[in-house]
Write a structure and sequence with these properties.
- Helix content is about 60%, strand content about 0%.
- The termini are far apart.
- Among the domains are: about 110 residues; about 130 residues, no CATH class; about 130 residues, no CATH class.
- The chain contains 26 helices and no strands.
- Helix 14 packs parallel to helix 16.
- One of its GO terms (biological process) is ribosome biogenesis.
- It holds the Pfam family CBF.
- Belongs to the CBF/MAK21 family.
Length: about 625
């Protein structure tokens, strides 16, 4: 019975709504543009024409089929009517009123106006998120909503309307980037709008997280609905990230330009302190300019502190929600520059960054910048940092988009003199083995990194040259870690065996201190001239720190075939190889080209000359006969 009753009631509501829409359509078809202007003038001129208000509201409805310029005309009249009355209207959420106030005609009139105002706000929110709305109409709707937000709460900032507006934009199923661009360009310069934007984004992300958590307990039979909901969640997350990323930073806030409120009363004082604040402002105006400037600096500092708190809550709540892959990458790229400097407590990002760093691949490379800042500037302890960093060294890292920043951070991470010798040796040997499988630009970066490692850590210079087959010398035994022991087998003393385990992901177990940088020696014969020339810098004694300098990795980290080719063209060469011989060659190849081979040039020449004697005599005889015949004929 209950289900039947619900069906009947829903059908009645649906039918009633259709009838109201038809009635609105019939009314809108009756009036012309001049009639709308007359209705607006009458509404603004006298209270006796208050019945024009519902008529004008029908033109602003999202379901109205009236042309956009009709809606614009009606909206301008309604905005001019409601703006002066907003401070007098009662709150829509107030339910407790006295019996005397309920019978007061003025109170009943203002309550009725409040309900019509709420209907207007709902219509404006529908228009802003409707796919059929005109762009010019959307811009006017945005300005009208922000005017209502400005004074809608008894003359103060109406955060509820602003929250509903952001929520309608974020959860819209269509692309409304135009509205977001207008909101960011026009209104994000005001401090109070930024403040409530942070609060709104935090609330929306929490609602989204709670909805996603509750949705995980529901078993979906239709996979299409689940994919559709996932798409909508990703779109919502992207828009919230778009809003946060387009809010200007508070760094270097100017007192005159950036310290600007959309609502003149401000949002950082209580309602009861409004009169006291006005009196304080009047007293400050009478004081000297120096006193006034000091008070302004203090107020800016207080506002910046509160803004940082809201900024931190909004970003942390967004990063805790599931992010689409493209948004995830954009966040990691800009996190260390746009977010971390403005957070009140950057350590709150440690969970997000450590999870990102543990993923591996490109995601770990992007997270390295922010994680390095937390470790060096904010005291974050991450025990497996170097193990994860070592795992990132692969040939594919030399082809990624963010390889330049990665190599600079890699050089910075290996700069500490407290780095153990076995760890520095593992990175040097791993880079050395990669030099055989990377393009020339990658080989240049590897040479620069190994150069700096050998100069900073003299204990690993034994990797440059080993004469005996044993992988351990007396000097090396002091640098070895306690866990690394020399094998007792005879194979460890055989010459030509590399004890380095290239497949090991733990740098402690790679046996790098028992190996050598023999791959670097092969670069002396590299086909690319810049590589073969640059590798000669490692032949210097890098333990003499006074006579050597570190190389700037950033000069080589962004190289490519094109940059190497341009540098070679600009390079001035004193001795240019030319295509000529100082002595006429007697053979195509010399004996030095084929060591161990013997060529009998004399026997070959005699056999060739003997076979050609008879041919030469016959040719001479034929030429003589032909010459004699020509003479006789003449």
């Amino acid at each position: 019975m209950a289900s039947v009753y619900e069906l009947v009631s829903s059908e009645k509501k649906k039918r009633k709504k259709e009838e109201e829409e038809e009635e609105k359509k019939r009314r809108s078809d009756k009036y012309s543009m001049s009639d709308l202007k007359t209705l607006g003038h009458q509404l603004l001129s006298s209270r006796a024409h208050i019945n024009n208000l519902p008529i004008l509201l029908t033109f602003v409805s999202s379901s109205s089929s009236s042309p956009p310029h009709y809606a614009l005309e009606a909206l301008l009249s309604l905005q001019s009517f409601f703006i002066p009355l907003l401070p007098q209207l009662p709150s829509s959420s107030s339910s407790t009123t006295t019996s005397q106030a309920q019978h007061d005609p003025d109170f009943i009139y203002l309550t009725w106006l409040r309900s019509k105002f709420d209907d207007l706000v709902n219509s404006l929110l529908d228009i802003s998120a409707s796919p059929h709305s005109d762009e010019a109409l959307r811009e006017v709707v945005l300005d009208t909503i922000m005017e209502f937000v400005k004074v809608g709460n008894g003359g103060r900032f109406h955060s509820a309307i602003y929250h509903r507006f952001i929520q309608s934009i974020v959860h819209s199923a269509i692309g409304i980037d135009v509205v977001l661009d207008l909101l960011a360009s026009k209104y994000f310069k005001y401090i109070d709008i930024r403040y409530f934007t942070y609060i709104t984004v935090e609330k929306l992300t929490r609602m989204l997280e709670a909805k996603d958590t509750s949705g995980n307990n529901i078993v979906s039979v239709d996979g299409g609905n689940r994919s559709h909901s996932r798409t909508s969640v990703e779109l919502t997350t992207y828009r919230m990230y778009y809003i946060l990323s387009h809010i200007p930073s508070l760094e270097g806030m100017d007192e005159k330009a950036d310290y600007e409120m959309w609502n003149g009363l401000g949002v950082f004082i209580k309602v009861g302190d409004l009169k006291e604040d006005c009196n304080r402002r009047k007293a400050e105006d009478k004081q000297h300019k120096t006193d006034k400037s000091s008070n302004n600096v203090l107020s800016v500092a207080i506002i910046a502190k509160k803004m940082k708190i809201k900024f931190t809550k909004a970003w942390i709540s967004l990063l805790r929600s599931p992010l689409p892959l493209d948004v995830y990458k954009e966040v990691l790229v800009t996190l260390h520059q746009a977010v971390i400097p403005q957070l009140s407590n950057p350590i709150l990002l440690c969970d997000f960054l450590t999870r990102s760093y543990d993923i591996g691949g490109v995601i770990s490379v992007m997270a390295l910048s922010s994680l390095y800042i937390l470790m060096t500037q904010h005291g974050l302890e991450y025990p497996n940092f170097y193990e994860k960093l070592y795992a990132l060294l692969a040939p594919s890292i030399f082809m990624t988009k963010h390889r330049a920043k990665f190599f600079e951070l890699l050089d910075s991470c290996l700069k500490s003199p407290l780095l153990p010798a076995y760890l520095a040796a593992a990175f040097a040997k791993k880079l050395s083995s990669l030099s055989l499988a990377v393009p020339p630009s990658g080989a240049l970066v590897i040479i620069a990194l190994i150069h700096n490692l050998l100069r900073r850590h003299p204990s690993i210079n034994c990797l440059v040259h080993r004469e005996d087959g044993d992988g351990i010398t007396r000097d090396d035994s002091k640098a070895l870690k306690d866990g690394e022991q020399e094998d007792s087998g005879t194979s460890s003393r055989e010459p030509g065996i590399d004890h380095f385990n290239n497949e090991e992901t733990d740098p402690v177990k790679t046996n790098a201190m028992r190996s050598s940088l023999w791959e670097i020696d092969t670069l002396r014969h590299h086909y690319c001239p810049p590589v073969s020339r640059f590798v000669l810098s490692l032949e210097n004694d890098l333990t003499l720190r006074r006579k050597t300098t570190e190389l700037a990795v950033k000069d080589f980290s962004s190289g490519s075939y094109a940059t190497i080719f341009r540098e070679e063209i600009r390079r001035r060469v004193k001795q240019v190889p030319l295509a000529f011989y100082k002595a006429i060659p007697t053979s195509l190849f010399s004996e030095s080209d084929f060591p161990g081979w013997i060529f009998n040039y004399e026997q070959i020449d005699n056999s060739v000359n003997g076979s050609n004697i008879n041919v030469d005599i016959a040719e001479d005889h034929d030429h003589a006969l032909a010459k004699r015949q020509r003479i006789e004929c003449s």
